[in-house]
UniProtKB/TrEMBL annotation:
Localization per record: Cell membrane; Membrane
Name of the protein this chain belongs to: Penicillin-binding protein
Main location: membrane
Pfam name, any one: PBP_dimer
Superkingdom as given in the UniProt entry: Bacteria
Natural source organism: Flavobacterium suncheonense GH29-5 = DSM 17707
Segments traversing the membrane: none
Domain Penicillin-binding protein dimerisation: 46-208
Domain Penicillin-binding protein transpeptidase intervals: 247-577
InterPro entries for the chain: Beta-lactam/transpept, Beta-lactam/transpept-like, PBP_dimer, PBP_dimer_sf, PCN-bd_Tpept, Penicillin-binding_protein_2
Coiled coil, from the record: none
UniProt membrane topology term: Single-pass membrane protein
């Protein structure tokens, strides 16, 4: 038995080894396709990115051809460096740096030597490419913008870096990827799928045809087209109105949460980040630390909301039962909330109920409502938490979940926040009374302000704001069709909406009425502080305005914030009224007086005060 066992094991092992070798060398030739195989060259076929359209079907972003010069360092032979550099208009030092960078990546694998040649450069190089072993042309497509607005919405295309390549094996050196905006959020559907071709080469490195007759080749799949919720004409109008100003505009369709316009000012032409000059242009935009054109103020800038927040103060007071719409308070030019503590008011003094309090924006009225809300509970911490929970149900104090990469969650304080500030206790409703009028510790983004108004227009619910309307061949995320309901009962919204309507009839926006449209809105003036040379300095107040229209069956909710814009009805209010008329009346503008003032007006002199030393205008 032993005599048979040993030879049997040897024979069996030999058979297994032979079978494995036969499989690897004859049946399975996948190893041959590896990119470091000298006899096989992998060529990628890059698809066109998906097109981008606005809600009305207008083409916003298409594609244009681009040509990259690729290099495989180990294949460079007998290169006339001077001629090569002359054709491409680069120096010898630039050439050596690019070759060295390519070698660091890989001596055997292709990487981008010079990206994004235009047609003339491509033609000149193509004529002599046969002389330049180790170099070849890779055709790609770059974005071709049909509009010069919406850069913050679209984002841009750039080359992948090493970190992205290591994280996602789909990408290779020189590949393009979407960054920021919808290009980043919807990268996987927009990019498509690149095709792969395996080419055989002989020992002289000459292409001798497809490997295995193209058995392993794949074709590229074009990226899916997407349709945005943006109304590009409204976006253009908003960016024009915000010229020479800083701030943001966010417009939302209340019934769906679809973002109609997302304006940040100042902005830039998206075409600046396409082509050979992309890197230089991006650096210039990035280094502008004063105007910050790459900073999306609609999504990232956190401001005290000012008087628009009084709307929520009223709703929480109604829900908590500390007031009804007929409850009255007396205003003596402000609100006295402690010994020597006085919150000034500009409403003109007198008896104030809910309606008058809203349309006259009475600080005394809302100071009383807030104090009663907090003091309803036996401890202020319980009152603040109840108030905070109501406010957060409007989507405030949290990331909103919209489909654009950047975002800030703002700040809605809770008792834990004040316990940290007052570790020994002692804080109460009067300590934090500034919250009643949207100052204090409250911070909101223009996106959150617009969503707040959409929620009020809907009388208590909202959908997560989003810019995607349709993706060809795909479904949009269900979270954008999921209703969010606030903690405020529907019955309390009507009296508040009546007050917002009277802001345009009798109140602070009476001069901003638009014939034929019933607009509900609220002006706001938000205090503005910064640090100059290490000192906290109060700058000119921000101008804030929120609104929705029409009053019945609202079609648009909007928030406008203009930095250093004095008060709500001076800059933000007119811009909001014009945007509403533009959208509701389909391009008809009757308030030519407001339009002319907004289009021609500039606040640059205010922004220059930071460096000029001129005094700021403070609204007391």
């Amino acid at each position: 038995m032993r005599k048979i066992l040993l030879p049997g094991l040897i024979i069996a092992s030999t058979v297994l080894i032979i079978a494995r070798l036969f499989y690897l060398q004859i049946l399975d030739d996948s190893y041959i396709k590896k990119s470091d195989n000298n006899a096989i060259k992998i060529v990628y076929d890059y698809p066109e990115r998906g097109y981008i359209y606005d809600r009305n079907g207008e083409l916003l972003v298409a594609n244009q051809p681009s040509y990259d010069i690729m290099v495989i360092p180990r294949e460079i032979k007998n290169l006339d460096t001077l001629e090569f550099c002359s054709i491409l208009n680069i120096t010898k030092d630039e050439f050596l740096k690019k070759i060295e960078k390519a070698k660091v990546y890989s001596t055997r694998l292709p990487s981008v030597f010079l990206p994004q040649l235009n047609k003339i450069e491509y033609a000149a190089f193509q004529e002599k490419i046969r002389k330049y072993n180790g170099f070849y042309i890779q055709k790609r497509s770059l974005r071709d913008y049909q509009v010069d607005v919406g850069a913050n919405i679209f984002g841009y295309i750039t080359q992948v870096n090493d970190a992205i390549i290591q994280k996602n094996p789909y990408y290779k050196s020189g590949d393009l990827i979407g960054m920021q905006g919808v290009e980043q959020t919807y990268e996987e559907v927009l990019r498509g799928v690149k095709g792969v071709k395996y080419r055989q080469r002989d020992r002289f490195n000459k292409d001798i045809g497809s490997y295995k007759d193209g058995k392993y080749d794949t074709i590229s799949v074009q990226g899916s087209d997407i349709t945005l919720t943006i109304d590009i004409e409204l976006q253009k109008y908003g960016e024009a109105l915000m010229k020479n100003k800083r701030g943001g505009i966010v417009a939302i369709e209340p019934k769906t949460g679809e973002i109609l316009a997302l304006v940040t000012a100042p902005s830039y032409d998206p075409a600046l980040l396409v082509g050979r000059e992309r890197s230089k242009n991006y650096t210039a935009l990035y280094n502008d630390s004063i105007a910050m054109p790459l900073f999306d103020r609609g999504l990232l800038a956190e401001y005290p909301p000012g008087s628009p927040f009084k709307i929520l103060t009223a709703l929480v007071g109604l829900q908590e039962g500390v007031i009804d719409e007929k409850t009255q308070f007396l205003c003596h030019g402000g609100f006295s909330y402690g010994r020597g503590a006085f919150m000034r008011c500009h409403c003109g003094s007198g008896v104030r109920d809910l309606n008058i309090g809203i349309y006259k924006s009475c600080n005394a009225y809302f100071g009383n409502v807030f104090k009663l809300t907090i003091d309803k509970y036996n401890k202020p911490r319980f009152g603040v938490n109840a108030w905070s929970n109501h406010v957060q149900s409007f989507g405030l104090g949290n990331f909103m979940g919209y489909d654009l990469p950047p975002g800030r969650k703002g700040h809605i304080p809770t008792s834990k926040y004040y316990d940290r500030w007052y570790p020994n206790g002692g804080w109460k409703s009067s300590t934090i009374i500034s919250n009643s009028i949207g100052q204090g510790e409250i911070l909101m983004t223009p996106m959150q302000l617009a969503n707040m108004m959409a929620t009020i227009a809907n009388e208590g619910y909202y959908y997560t704001p989003h810019v995607i309307k349709k993706i060809k061949g795909h479904q949009i995320d269900k979270k954008f069709t999921t209703k969010h309901v606030t903690t405020i009962d529907k019955q309390y919204f009507k009296p508040v909406i009546n007050g917002l309507f009277d802001v345009y009839n009798h109140g602070t926006a009476a001069g901003l009425r638009v014939e034929g449209i019933e607009i509900c809105g609220k002006t706001g003036t938000a205090e503005n502080f910064t640090k100059i040379n290490g000192k906290r300095v109060q700058l000119t107040d921000h101008s804030v305005f929120v609104a929705f229209a029409p009053r019945e069956n609202p079609k648009i909710a909007i928030a406008v914030l203009v930095e250093n814009g004095y008060w709500g009805s001076r800059w933000a209010g007119p811009i909001a009224s014009l945007m509403i008329e533009k959208y509701v009346k389909k391009d008809t503008i009757t308030r030519k007086d407001l339009e002319r003032r907004m289009l021609e007006g500039s606040l640059q002199f205010e922004y220059d005060k930071v460096t000029s030393g001129q005094p700021f205008s403070i609204n007391r």
